[in-house]
Amino acid sequence: MRRRGALGLLLLALGCASPGEPPPSPARLAAENALASAETAYAKKEWSASARAFGHAAVAFGAIGEAAPEATARSAQSESLRRAGDAAGAVAAAEAALVIDRHLARPEAQARDLAILARARAAQGDLVLAIETAEAARAQARSGSALLAVVESDLALYLLLAGRASDRERAVELLRSVCSAMEAGHDARGLATAELQLGRAELLAGEPDAAVGHLDRARAAFAAMEDVEGLAATNELLAALAAGRGDAAAAEYYRAQARAGFMFADDRAGLARLVP
Questions:
Q1: Nearest to 4, CA basis, from 28, 20, 27, 40
Q2: What 3-state class would DSSP assign to 269?
């Protein structure tokens, strides 16, 4: 896929392009412009705008027969839709990406699509199907890859949220494996996320003293990276921990911190979880 900067397009308009290089078609220009707009909107956490732009990019790439970038755009559209609160739309976009990548026989792309589809299904509240889909993503992901670590972290979260006592031990094992992989790969964000989920696991098991160390480490790491979403999620759990200990002042402090983070990230689901 060709990507042209403003200078390249200007040279084409002035007739100064490289000899023999055809000008981009209107469909390609539309695809590349939509993709650039989508990436900008996503970086700004403008989820609805990025979802629309990724959708436009997918249609344009499909029109010129570029199936791989079409699938990637659909997959990114699914993430944007989920973050915008449209779980059903997110499922549809991820399924469309998966159909394409299965046709292209791209295993790693299929693993990505399945991981994103699992997130969308979890957002719909269907944890059984989310777990099944994440298991399929785990089977497709390349051993030792960053994607596999993300999939295992997500799978552990779904297992914890499903609330089955039999799944907790497996979730903790997955998260400890993720921690080791993230430490070896020097992935600070991935390690912080795994610590967050280990804290969640201990809280759900009724072990607040064990949870606090994981959550404190996650909070410090997310703060160092200025990761708003990670901080908000960690503060939400710290608020629950403090409330369980009867420390109303600390609970309100962490709840306010979580609320600020969820508001900044336009995370409506996160805001809905917080007690007013």
A1: 28
A2: helix
Angle made by CA atoms 119, 202, 182, in degrees to the nearest 5: 60
Task: Please give the span between the terminal C-alpha atoms of the chain, in angstroms, as a whole number.
Answer: 48
Contact of 94 with 124, CB cutoff 8 Å: no
Encode pLDDT of 48-86 as tens digits: 999 999 999 999 999 999 999 999 999 999 999 998 889
- What is the rounded CA–CA span in Å between residue 36 and residue 28? 12
CA distance 117 to 130: 8
187: CB partners within 8 A, 6+ apart? 146, 149, 181
pLDDT per residue over 228-273, tens digit each? 999 999 999 999 999 999 999 999 999 999 999 999 988 878 888 8
The helix-helix angle for 146-162 and 165-184 (nearest 10°) equals 160
Closest to 222 measured CA to CA, from 257, 248, 247, 269: 257
Using CA of residue 26, residue 28, residue 31, residue 33, what is the dihedral sign?
negative
Which pTM was predicted? 0.80
